[in-house]
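Trying the structure run again after the queue cleared.
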Amino acid sequence: METLEITTPNNMTNQKIKLIDGCFTASEAADIIHAVLDVKINFHKLQRLSRTEGNVEDSCQYDNGRIDELIAEQIRSKELLKTARLDGKKLRMTSTILIEVDE
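Done. Tokens:
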């Protein structure tokens, strides 16, 4: 995994992490994609839960927009990966996380 650090004027660093870069079978790609999406979905669910934990006055209304988006992408990716698997195709995937210091 490649990491690049860029120093800003106030000595804080921006970071670029090459998370995924390669050619994968459909099964390998499915494992990676589903693991990443599951982590993100669970992150948002935990954030939602932590906002109201112990607050009996909370109306328990949430914006589930991001969770719904991620679940929809998970469904779409399953279809793509199923087709690739049936056709015996390999998949090229890349993913980079860019972390920038917000001034």
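The mean pLDDT is 87. Worth checking whether this holds up in the mutant runs.
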